[in-house]
Write a structure and sequence with these properties.
The chain is α/β, with parallel strands linked by helices and 434 residues long. It is 28% helix and 20% strand.
Length: 434
């Protein structure tokens, strides 16, 4: 797309239209109450929440895009000065309230910007969103996919949010004499909190500004700001800390739960806590890990990182397998990761270039903390994906066998490979040397 037409989740000068996928702070950086650079397109729920996040904002700039419908408008080409028509559809991203993907079509081709998303295989909302996307594409190729690559690494494997939410409910039920605090952001994890409230038939405390958000979302009967009505509190994530938990435990027994795809700290502590237990769980006293029994065929995993803190893999971002499934569904010609600040950033082309319609050259793994063993595992995963995609040539497969044989002491002559090339064999472009 030509520069000077639109910006997505970017708020600097130079565009004629601006698009917001959702209201998390890392996507609104640069957007303020006094911002007035052009029309701002967003989902209906995001527009409803907007005045609470940006009081005093000129709401006449907001343009609501209803999901699952095409919207068209004209822009001026900066290079030619002529009109160009842009078609856009918003699709449910199921990340946080109001979050959407944007599918753009026009003279420039077809672009899909996911923003942050999670499309679980077991989710009916995700199933509907997938059907919407395929119907909107109508067999047209996505030229560039701008992808949420937050967990684009095979080490990230999460249970569904439904299973993870039940894990949290089990922890709370297993500590009937404890107060509970749960670390959350100012938007997101509403489904988790509602699940807990309904599973345990309790209310959940939230801070006053968060209660306003809940009421705007129509969640009026689950949450309260009265501490004497409940022992479970959802607190701002910035206030969730070991010091906070230790201070609370000097007053009364309290445990903290951090629902996140990322581990809350580097490693769990060794513990022999006998207070935890439920019919669905058993605990490894040496590692501090609590493994959940079979729930709908899924295994959840809870880690105890401190004597007062549990971490539960409840993620609003797609895990590696879900990213793979999504790319296989879209089959773009090219793709780019939209998350580059992660401590373990991976260009999605590294793993999933083989799933693009137009084969993409292999990329090296850009992982700041990847050790030699981890790098080898990543390489093995990438090879497996290329083999499954059918884009690993028979010659490359034979070369791998040759190298393996050479490793075990069978010295093969290099001129054998050269002679095959001279006979017309084409060496694959894939480079597995890294």
């Amino acid at each position: 797309m030509e520069r000077g037409l639109i910006s997505v989740d970017r708020w600097s000068d130079g565009s004629q239209a601006y698009f917001l996928t959702h209201l998390h702070s890392d996507h609104t950086r640069g957007l303020t109450s006094s911002w007035s650079k052009g029309p701002l397109f967003c989902s209906r729920i995001t527009a409803k929440l907007f005045p609470l996040r940006f009081p005093g904002f000129d709401l006449s700039l907001l343009r609501v895009i209803d999901v699952e419908s095409w919207h068209s408008f004209s822009l001026i080409s900066p290079s030619s000065g002529s009109n160009t028509v842009l078609h856009v559809m918003a699709i449910d991203a199921h990340h946080c309230p109001g979050s959407v993907m944007f599918l753009f079509r026009g003279d420039f081709g077809c672009l899909l910007y996911t923003g942050d998303f999670r499309w679980e295989g077991t989710s009916k909302r995700a199933e509907r969103a997938r059907a919407t996307l395929l119907n909107a594409l109508q067999d047209n190729a996505v030229d560039v996919l701008y992808l949420d690559n937050t967990y684009c690494n095979p080490s990230y494997e999460f249970p569904s949010r439904e299973v993870a939410a039940q894990l949290v409910a089990d922890i709370i039920a297993a500590h009937p004499e404890h107060d509970i605090i749960i670390g959350i952001h100012d938007l997101g994890k509403e489904e988790l909190l509602v699940h807990i409230a309904r599973a345990l038939n309790i209310k959940i405390w939230v801070w006053p500004e968060r209660l306003q958000t809940m009421h705007l979302l129509g969640l009026n009967d689950v949450f309260t700001t009265k501490t004497d009505l409940t022992r479970v509190r959802a607190v701002p994530r910035y206030s969730f800390s070991i010091n906070t938990l230790e201070g609370l435990n000097s007053i009364c027994p309290t445990i903290g739960i951090m629902p996140s795809g990322l581990p809350w700290t580097v490693k769990p502590i060794e513990c022999d806590d006998k207070h935890f237990g439920s019919p669905l769980t058993h605990q490894n006293s040496k590692s501090g890990e609590i493994q959940m029994g079979n729930l709908n065929g899924n295994l959840g995993l809870v880690k105890k990182f401190h004597k007062y803190i549990f971490s539960v893999p409840y993620s609003d971002h797609s895990c590696f397998a879900e990213i793979q499934s999504f790319i296989g569904l879209v089959q773009p010609n090219n793709m780019k990761g939209i998350v580059s600040s992660s401590s373990c950033y991976v260009d999605p082309i590294y793993y999933f270039g083989c799933l693009c319609k137009a084969s993409q050259p292999a990329k090296k793994l850009h992982c700041k903390h990847e050790n030699k063993k981890g790098g080898s595992q990543a390489l093995a995963v990438r090879r497996k994906l290329y083999i499954e995609s059918g884009k690993l040539t028979k010659l490359e497969t034979q070369r791998r066998k040759d190298r393996k044989a050479d490793y075990f002491g069978v010295r093969l002559k290099r001129f054998h490979s050269l002679r095959r090339i001279q006979r017309g064999a084409k060496i694959a472009d894939i480079d597995f040397s890294d």
